[in-house]
């Protein structure tokens, strides 16, 4: 059974900062492609219950994201809160400034990502996947391979989350969503390189092929190679 990414992202927030964490969870869902541009967020009552926040807090978070340009509210029978077709562009931070601010954060994020994602690929390949799970992986792979440059980061994130989903572990999927948000902050500070995207797509295909073939070692090695390439680029631009 697929552990849906929206279950991992729309999980109960911790006590203490319900508004801030609600905003963070909604942004995760949008930026990681769990809810895509043009899609409607879950109904307010359902979403508030899943996040374990009051409807007032949820409305305040949605209002904040509306002002920031991420969502819009529509009235009527088919109304609700929808993700905008055009999302705000990531704020570009200069590589030198980000490197200074990060200190040891770059290596920490990359190490955490390496452990989680290589393990996820290996674990996914050990499972006997259902037809639904196989179709889910193949569809996410196809979407990423065909992505426009402007959509690539979001669809790339969605594919990596899909790999975590088919491990069957909600905890792993949640952890992957968190580390991917950290990683995307770093990736947004460096340019998207066409050759690197082509290479990444080839590696994505190798990873998914190994998972679908039930080959844990090949899946782990393919993911390791893929993550190493990203790490090299990030160190080159930011270190």
UniProtKB/TrEMBL annotation:
Domain HTH gntR-type residue range list: 16-86
Keywords associated with the record: DNA-binding, Transcription, Transcription regulation
Keyword Transmembrane: no
GO MF term (any one): DNA binding
Coiled-coil parts of chain: none
Family annotation (PROSITE patterns): HTH_GNTR (PS50949)
Official protein name in the record: FadR family transcriptional regulator
Taxonomic source organism: Kribbella jiaozuonensis
């Amino acid at each position: 059974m697929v552990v849906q990414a929206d279950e991992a992202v729309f999980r109960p927030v911790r006590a203490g900062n319900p508004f801030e964490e609600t905003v963070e969870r909604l942004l995760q869902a949008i930026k990681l492609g769990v809810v895509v541009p043009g899609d409607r967020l879950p109904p307010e009552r359902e979403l508030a219950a899943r996040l374990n926040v009051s409807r007032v807090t949820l409305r305040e978070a949605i209002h904040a994201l509306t002002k920031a340009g991420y969502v819009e509210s529509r009235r009527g029978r088919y109304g609700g809160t929808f993700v905008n077709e055009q999302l705000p562009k990531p704020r570009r931070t200069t590589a030198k400034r980000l490197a200074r601010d990060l200190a040891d954060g770059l290596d920490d994020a990359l190490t955490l990502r390496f452990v989680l994602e290589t393990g996820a690929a290996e674990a996914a390949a050990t499972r006997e996947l259902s037809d639904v799970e196989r179709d889910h992986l193949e569809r996410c792979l196809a979407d990423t391979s065909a992505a426009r440059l402007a959509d690539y980061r979001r669809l790339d994130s969605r594919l990596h989350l899909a790999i975590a989903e088919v491990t069957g572990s909600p905890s792993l999927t949640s952890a992957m969503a968190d580390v991917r948000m950290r990683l995307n902050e770093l990736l947004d500070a460096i340019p998207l390189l066409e050759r690197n995207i082509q290479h990444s797509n080839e590696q994505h295909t190798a990873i998914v092929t190994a998972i679908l073939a039930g080959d844990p070692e090949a899946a782990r090695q393919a993911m390791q190679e893929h993550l190493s390439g990203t790490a090299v680029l990030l160190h080159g631009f930011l270190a």
